[in-house]
Amino acid sequence: MKKITKILILAALAVPFTASAEIQLKDNSEILGKWEVYAEAAALDKTKSPLNTEWTFQKDGTLNTKSTDTRGRTGTFEIPLKYSIVDGAIKKQSTPGREKYETCKVVEKQGSEMILKCKYLYYFLRKK
């Protein structure tokens, strides 16, 4: 019995775990302004794909997104989306013109850096 207990304890210690304490936003004043979205990833420990995107959170609940195609095929793409702070997370419109929203939780926020966990991706942002 002792041997099984020791094996279970060692196995539990060997399994890596990620405790990501989410940061609760009080209101949009904590994120207002321009943010450079410089990378995205499927998980925090996965490879980051570089992005050339800018998000501007405005007081009126508008999130202006501006993306530049680094390969020069489409140039610059800009769209306004609606957003709000609900239960400490960012609830943003997932498609312009549709009332479909996704929730993005702040995983980390230190100084001018912030990491958001949305439905399918993590976004890495830097305040401009």
Topology:
Elements: H1 2-14, E1 33-41, E2 49-57, E3 62-68, E4 76-86, E5 89-93, E6 101-110, E7 113-117, E8 122-127
Antiparallel strand pairs: 1-2, 1-8, 2-3, 3-4, 4-5, 5-6, 6-7, 7-8
Write up what this structure looks like:
With 128 residues, the chain is mainly beta. The protein has a single domain, classed as Beta Barrel (Lipocalin). Helix content is 10%, strand content 48%. The protein contains one helix and eight strands. It has one helix at residues 2-14, and strands at 33-41, 49-57, 62-68, 76-86, 89-93, 101-110, 113-117, 122-127. An eight-stranded antiparallel barrel has the order 1-2-3-4-5-6-7-8. β1 (33-41) and β2 form a beta hairpin. The longest helix is centred in the first third of the chain and has 13 residues, at 2-14. It is globular.
Please provide a brief summary of the model.
With 128 residues, this protein is mostly beta strands. It has one helix spanning 2-14; strands at 33-41, 49-57, 62-68, 76-86, 89-93, 101-110, 113-117, 122-127.
